[in-house]
Amino acid sequence: MQSFVQKLGGTLRATGAFLVPNTVEDFEQFSVPVKQHIGVRSETTNKQRRLSPLHCLVTKEADAAKRKIERTVMFCMGKCRRDILWERLLKGGQEDDGKILLSRLTFTDFEELLCMVESSSLSKLDERLLHFTNMGPHWFSTLLAYLPSRYGEQFRYFVNTDGKTQCAVIVNVDCTDTCILLSVNSSTGRADLSLLNREARTAAVLQTPAEDEQHQEAIQNLVETFIGACCFHLWSSMLC
Fold it and tell me: Which domain of life does the UniProt lineage start with (predicted)?
C-alpha cells in the first residue's frame, strides 16, 4: 500500500499535476500563513466599518442619545434638589418623637432655592401694592417683628451674615407649592413682595378645572391675608 502511494506521488510530481512537499522545508515553503491573512482581513474589515456611512450614523445617534441622557439626569437631579430644599422650607426643624426629621434651611440654602423656583412680584397682581415697598427701613423692621406673632408656624425667617438682607417667608397650609416672600435690604431701604411657586405654572402637572380653581382661591386667600396683616401693622404704627 505504501509503495503504491509513493508511486502515485512520484507520478504526480513528474507530471506537475500536483505539488507535494517532500521535506519539512518544502512544507513550510508551500504552507499559507493563515493567521497573518486573517489579521489583514480583520484590519481591513474594521477600517471599512469605521468608514461606512451606517457606522458613522450609528455613532452619531449614540452620541446624541448619550447627551440626551446626561441632560435628563442633570435636569432630574436639579428637580430633586429643589424639592428637597422646598420640603426643608416647609418642614425644616419640625420634630417627631423628639427627633428633627429635616434640618432648617440656611440663608445660603434659601438663596439656592430662590434660583430654582418661580418668583413673581405681587405688584403684578395689584399695582397699589407698590406703596408697601416704599416704606422706610424702620417700618419694615417692626413688620418683621410683628409677622411671627401673626403667622406662628407659617413664618420662616432668613438673614445673611452681615444682617443687611432679611427674608420673611409665609408658607401656605392650603397650597404647599406656593409661598409669599418679603425681602428687605436695609442698606438700600427697599423691600420686595413676591409670590414663590415651587414649579412654574406652565410646567406644573395639568389639573382639572375644579382643582385649578381651588388652587387659585388658596393663593388669593394667602395674598389677601398677608396684605391684611400689612395694613393692620400700618394702621397700628400710625396710632403709636
Answer: Eukaryota
Residues 149 and 202 in one domain: yes
pLDDT tens-place string over residues 37-62: 445 455 555 555 555 778 788 888 99
CA–CA separation, 218 and 45 (whole Å): 68
| 59, 172: one domain | no
Does any domain span residue 31?
A: yes
pLDDT-based confidence at 218, cuts 50/70/90?
confident
| Residue-wise DSSP of 138-187 | HHHHHHHHHHHHHHGGGEEEEE-TTS-EEEEEEE-SS-TTEEEEEEEETT
Query: Pick the residue with more confidence: 206 or 239?
Result: 239
Residue 162 and residue 66 share a domain? no
- Checking phi first, is residue 149 left (phi over 0); if not, alpha (psi -120 to 50) or beta? alpha
Domain ranges, residue 233: 118-239
The per-residue pLDDT for range 93-133, each reduced to its tens digit, is 776 666 777 888 999 999 999 999 999 988 888 888 888 77
> What value does the CA radius of gyration of the chain take, rounded to a whole number of Å?
40
Residue 91 lies in a domain: no
- Residue 233's alpha-carbon distances to 114, 144, 227, in angstroms, are 27, 10, 10
Please indicate, yes or no, whether the overall pTM of this predicted structure exceeds 0.90: no
Task: State whether 127 and 221 are in the same domain.
Answer: yes
Are the C-beta atoms of 155 and 169 separated by less than 8 Å?
A: yes
Q: How many domains does the chain have?
A: 2
Question: Can you tell me whether residue 50 is helix, strand or coil?
Answer: helix
